[in-house]
Amino acid sequence: MKSLLRLRPYLARYKRTLLLGLLTVVASNLFTVAQPTFVGHAVDSLKRGLETNNLEQTDLLFWAGAIVLFNLIAGGFTFLTRQTIIVVSRKIEYDMRNDFLGHIQKLSLSYFQNTPTGDLMAHATNDISAVRNSLGPGIMYPTDTLMTFTMAIAVMLYTDWQLTLLAMIPLPLVSFAVYRLGKLVHQKFEERQEQYSNLTTRAQENLSGIRVVKAYVREAHEIGLFRVMSFDYLKKNLVLARVQSIMWPLMFLLVGFSLVITLYVGGLRVINHNLTIGQLTAFFGYLVMLIWPMIAFGWVINILQQGAASMGRLAKILDTEPEIRDTATTDHAISHVRGEIEFRNVHFTHKGANRESLTGIDLTVPAGTTLAIVGYTGAGKSTLVNMMSRMYDVTSGELCIDGRNVKEIPLQALRSNIGYVPQETFLFSDTISENIGYGTDNGTDEHVQEAAEISRIAHDVSDFPKGYATMLGERGITLSGGQKQRTSIARAVIRTPKILILDDALSAVDTYTEEEILKRLRTIMKGRTSIIISHRISTVKDADQIIVLNEGRIVERGSHDELVDLGGIYAELHRKQLLEEELEQL
Amino acid sequence: MTDEEILGKAYDTSLMKRLLKYLRPYKWHVVLGIVLSIVVSSMEAVRPYFTKIAVDENIANGDHEGLLFTALAFLGVLVFRGLIQYFNAYLTQWIGQKTIFDLRMQVFEHLQNLGLKFYDKNPIGRLITRVTNDIEVLNEMFSSGIVMVFSDVFTIIGILYFMFSMNWKLALISLSVLPLLFYGTFLFRKKAREAYREVRIQIARINTFMQEHITGMMVDQVFNREAKSYNQFDNINAAHRDANIKSIFYYALFYPGVDLIGAIAIGLIIWYAGVEAIGGTVTIGTVMAFLQFNEMFWRPIRDLSEKYNIMQTAMASSERLFKLLDDRTMIDDPVAPVPLNAVRGDIEFRNVWFAYNPGPTDAETEWILKNISFTIKAGETAAFVGHTGAGKTTIISLLGRFYDVQKGEILIDGVNIKDIRQKDLRKHISVVLQDVFLFSGDIASNINLGNEAISFEAVQRAARTVGANGFIEQLSNTYHAEVKERGSTLSVGQKQLISFARALAFNPAILILDEATSNVDTETELLIQSAIHSLLEGRTSIVIAHRLSTIQNADKIIVMHKGEIRETGTHQELLAHGGIYYKLYQLQYKEQETGSRPVVQIGLRV
Question: How many domains does chain A divide into?
Fold first, then answer.
């Protein structure tokens, strides 16, 4: 339960509202607790009237009116309780979710590579919901229970303390039963959920491997396996049902015991004139009033426990320190970069990996020049360029921009001067215009169109009925691989960056369009630094400097002609691509 | 709106009829459940009745013994009712679970029978939702919906019966608030449903946003758009909060409102009791009983209105499920199949034309295969070579009849494969796909795929033949070592060897091999080469070859280019010819001559 203490700052933000909420709980209980007594008075008055044959109609009307009036007032306060406490819990949920996103935005790339998206999603939704649940109902019901309990018991004790004590005997059992059963239900529920996720995994596996299943005629076998798991799920469900089904009947039974005791003992006391029939009626009223708080009490304990567990999980994320951030050595005077990049004996090992991804990289890219990187898959090309924007920090060695260690440059200043086109194009489910304009703060329509023109996507966009307002993704259209890449390039270009990084960003674009894009990029990138990763010779041949990466090392460097003459990996690549072109012509 | 978001009507007769069919095997259980519900409901109304007897007959007359008897009878009824209630709650769950089990198996079996064409069109994620989520929703309807509706209705009827038999005028008076309650509930449901829908929409937006921005976090960071994204999220998050606050408002109004209507009813009972008492027709016990009836009446009414939501989602889910069950994208077996017992292994493609999505006319169709004809004699190995997209993979899909050709025919031992039952056909063909797919389980079960006709010895033999025994026997549990999902703990080479052993264990007449072009170390490469050799020996084989050694050993090389067969012959003949094969050889195979560098994929990504 300790982990819930972390919520203090959130609660403090709304303490006035919460205090008001607690007051309304007290007030509404005061008016509610009076009602069974009024009913009792009315019944007694009716009885007197029947016995003396002198019925006070106005008396009855008075009590009837009082009941309705008090209920109205109590209802008003209950309304306010929900409007304060429950509303605050939703506001805190909102605050927490914002803080959650705000925090993970600061975490570095390696964190996301090691944490499944599904896990983070589950924390952001389920755990925050569980915490919110423990805040709203977790505050409202215990207070309400406590108030109802104290007030009702006080009135009951005052009326007839012996009957009260006897009638109360089964009630603590109700709380206890709800608490224990609730725990058991939760446990069985978890077991059931586990089997459910097993079943889901199995279905996923079967459907992903459906080609093998069909090729080897294993359908019947797969059905058999699924049947066994499905049946196990059925059994787990029935175990859960057995526990769950006990809950309400047991509750009614325990409460029933109370009613029976009250009926018998109370009845005897009415016969012996120790109690009026009206008071007995009131007693029944109070007992009924206590049922819900008793149930709620056991329930709330479970909710609080679940909330605490969730808060614990959230705390673990919120306490994760971002690995890459501005530190004391950051020079905040820097707001621009020229674009000179220098790697000095840089080594890099991915978190948890036992092999270096980059080994002894020495490389200088003068500002305003173009560097091309070539190499096999897994050679470390993407890792190398990702260090420039500090997605990763060097393990040893030094990376300098404009002669300053990259760690001294504020992240904001560094990244706002970089335009990056990732290998795997990632566009948002938003309009094309938003996706291109995403790259800049003040992207006017003209800017967007200009960038789209440079990356040769403008023509495609004009073919869409809604043009730049066309939605992408699930709710919109699906772009082809090449269109996605060109949109992604426009997004980087609109930033007019000092450093432009294309990570294999033209692979899905045909060679003609590629040439068109490169030509335009050369114009706008005059005086700016460009880094181009590619598998195609045509893309890289005009670069000022070409390096070939192999297993994390720079194995060849020079201009196109120099490298072709060298007769190494680059020359081999060149030869093959010429052959391929010939083959295409056939 | 996607399929998942549509919420239609809460009741659809034809859907309901079809759903109820699933209850048929359990009809006696359902009948019992309904009977028990009636019993429990009728006892629900008994409590006020006992109170009335205790007050009017026992207490009023000072009858100690009678009071004890009434209390004990009351107790007995309570215990009895509790037991039945428990049993019935379990029974209804049981019915629901059984029904759901049947339905889930039906959907799963149907999925197993659908053709690959169906899987090409439907994302797996959506299909999984059908097997799990949608069925789960129906569970709620079957277990808590149908039987409980009876229970609620009978509770109401029971209470009404007792009320009217005690004092019909008082009954009418206390029921006079009902229209108010109904109207209030109706209004609330409407508003709450709107608010709920808004909440759901906003939750979906939050999830989409989160999902997208966690996946694309790197993009956010490189473009330093964190603040912008944060603000965007803030807006969605706030909309979600406000939608919830709106719905809280309705709930905050509704619950006290219902209470107030109850209090008004109490007021009316007290007032009218006074009026009636003058006539002497009302007793104290009756008034007390009515006060209790009043408080008992609300629950079943409120429950009933909640069933509406359950029904609504259940209808939407069942509609999606039935749509899936009605999908007949499958290849039908012939009515009078030709039996195929022993297969020699002659294969012939005769003027085959094929497209995955044929257009309205031939001219508008994007043909993947154009007029393909070739024969492979029993026991021969044919190697298919060609550039990516040449149509090689399609040939092997067609041979197993995973798709039907549009024109021409495919013959095995001279029999058109359309005249053979798919199961019989595939029994004689083993396929090794480029992407090795391993199931979670153990090594042995991945080799025999759970086929009990393949003994453990046969599994071992197959593994030995392809040289997989080496690494398997070094695993801690050898053949029973655990295989994780997708075989994530095994290396690429190991997975390939397992898939070879799998193909061999089924001892097919025809073997189809789509060679993988992954980078493996030299030792493994040699192991794989010799495994392929023993795999192809003595059976008709079709290989999509990437290895020079495989090609050189083939009896026949078929060169495909852009959906057509362009060259056929042996390695030497084709090299001498100097055509496409010669170019391909230069591009892909030549460097393997030295044997030092394994297949490299660079430069092939066009």
Answer: 2
Q: Which of residues 67-86 of A touch B (CB under 8 A)?
A: 67-68, 70-72, 74-76, 78-79, 81-83, 86
Q: Please list every residue in chain B whose beta carbon sits closer than 8 Å to the beta carbon of residue A55.
A: 274, 277-278
B217-229 pLDDT, tens digit each: 888 888 878 888 8
- The conformation of residue A507, written as its DSSP 8-state character, comes to T
Please report whether residue A573 resides in a domain: no
Q: Which residues of B touch A268 (CB under 8 A)?
A: 64, 67
Which of A496, A513, A546 is the last residue before a domain boundary? A496
Q: How far apart are CA A28 and CA A73, in angstroms?
A: 7
Residue A189 in domain: yes
In A40-69, the residues whose Cβ lies within 8 Å of chain B are: 42-43, 46-47, 49-50, 55, 57, 60-61, 63-65, 67-68
Give the residue numbers spanning the domain of A51: 2-318
Superfamily (CATH) of domain B432-507: P-loop containing nucleotide triphosphate hydrolases (3.40.50.300)
- CB distance from A215 to chain B under 8 Å? yes
CATH superfamily of B345-428+534-606: P-loop containing nucleotide triphosphate hydrolases (3.40.50.300)
Q: What is the mean pLDDT of chain B?
A: 82
Residue A56 pLDDT greater than 90, yes or no: no
Report the alpha-carbon angle A52-A55-A57, nearest 5. 170
How confident is the model over A94-148, as pLDDT tens digits?
A: 999 999 999 998 888 888 877 777 778 878 888 898 899 888 888 888 888 888 8
Contact B257, B187 (CB under 8 A): no
Task: Say whether pLDDT at A45 is over 80.
Answer: yes
pTM for the structure as a whole: 0.74
| Residues 6 or more apart whose Cβ sits within 8 Å of residue B246 | B195, B198
Residues of chain A numbered 485-524 and touching chain B (CB < 8 Å): 491, 495, 507
* Residue A349: inside a domain: no
Distance, CA of A57 to CA of A49 (rounded, Å): 9
Per mean pLDDT, which range of A42-51, B118-127, B228-237, B532-541 is the poorest? Answer: B118-127
| A-chain residues near B90 (CB < 8 A) | 238, 241-242, 245
Cβ–Cβ contacts within 10 Å for residue B106, how many? 14
Q: Which of A496, A527, A557 is the last residue of a domain?
A: A496
Residue B596: per-residue pLDDT: 39
For residues A539-544, give the mean pLDDT: 89
Residues B512-526, mean pLDDT to the nearest whole number = 70
Contact B256, A75 (CB under 8 A): yes
Per-residue confidence (pLDDT) for residue B518, from 0 to 100: 57
When pLDDT is averaged across residues B32-43 and rounded to a whole number, the result is: 85
Supply the pLDDT for residue A100: 93
Burial (0-12, 13-18, 19+ Cβ within 10 Å), A494? buried
Q: What are the tokens at B241?
A: 């909060």
Yes or no: is domain B8-198+250-325 CATH 1.10.357.10?
no
Question: Strand, coil or helix: what is B225?
Answer: coil
Q: A264–B267: do the CB atoms touch at under 8 Å?
A: no
Picking from A70, A213, A260, A418 by the largest number of B CB atoms within 10 A of its own CB, the best residue to mutate is A260
Beta carbons of A64 and B271 less than 8 Å apart: yes
On whether residue A448 sits in a domain, the answer given is yes
Given a cut of 80, whether residue B304 has pLDDT beyond it is no
> Picking from A21-35, A44-58, A454-468, B161-175, which range would have the lowest pLDDT averaged per residue?
A44-58
Predicted confidence band of residue B432 (pLDDT cuts 50, 70, 90): confident
3-state DSSP helix/strand/coil percent for chain B, to nearest 5? 65, 10, 25
Give me the residue from B255, B426, B427 closest to A78, CB to CB.
Answer: B255
* Cα B222-B225-B226 angle, rounded to 5 deg: 100
Contacts of B62 in chain A (CB under 8 A): 271
Note the Cα B363 to chain centre separation in Å: 39
Residues A153, A263: one domain? Answer: yes
